[in-house]
Design goal:
single chain; about 120 residues
């Protein structure tokens, strides 16, 4: 095991270390075999890690069974970079590293809306 002398780290380095540790712990706990109470506990830890990482949302509260698994409703504040929808705990954990199905594909652009004149 690597020894880290945290007394030598500045604030930014400590925050980065905390975020890395949180992401690693959550990644190790990924499993579809979790009981509901365990999954909801991991969900709360994930929400906290996401907030610490700077992700913000209008809604990340509700959950329900979707296609045989628990999914969580996410409505992110930055909808130009992130999708709205029902996501698994693994999807939320992947969002910590700005990857996975929550992150919009940079190569995909929304189709621009064109207005047409309609005679009345």
């Amino acid at each position: 095991m690597t020894s880290i002398d945290i007394s030598q780290l500045d604030y930014a380095e400590l925050v980065a270390l905390r975020d890395s540790v949180n992401r690693r712990i959550l990644a190790l706990r990924r499993t579809p075999a979790l009981r509901l109470d365990e999954l909801l506990s991991v969900f709360e830890e994930t929400r906290e890690a996401l907030a610490n990482h700077g992700h913000r949302w209008h809604s990340l509260e509700r959950w329900q069974w979707v296609d045989g698994e628990v999914r969580f409703w996410l409505n992110p504040i930055d909808s130009s970079r992130y999708l709205v929808g029902w996501f698994t705990i693994d999807d939320l954990i992947a969002w910590l590293d700005d990857c996975g199905p929550i992150v919009r594909d940079a190569d995909v652009h929304d189709v621009p809306m064109r207005w047409i004149d309609v005679e009345q």
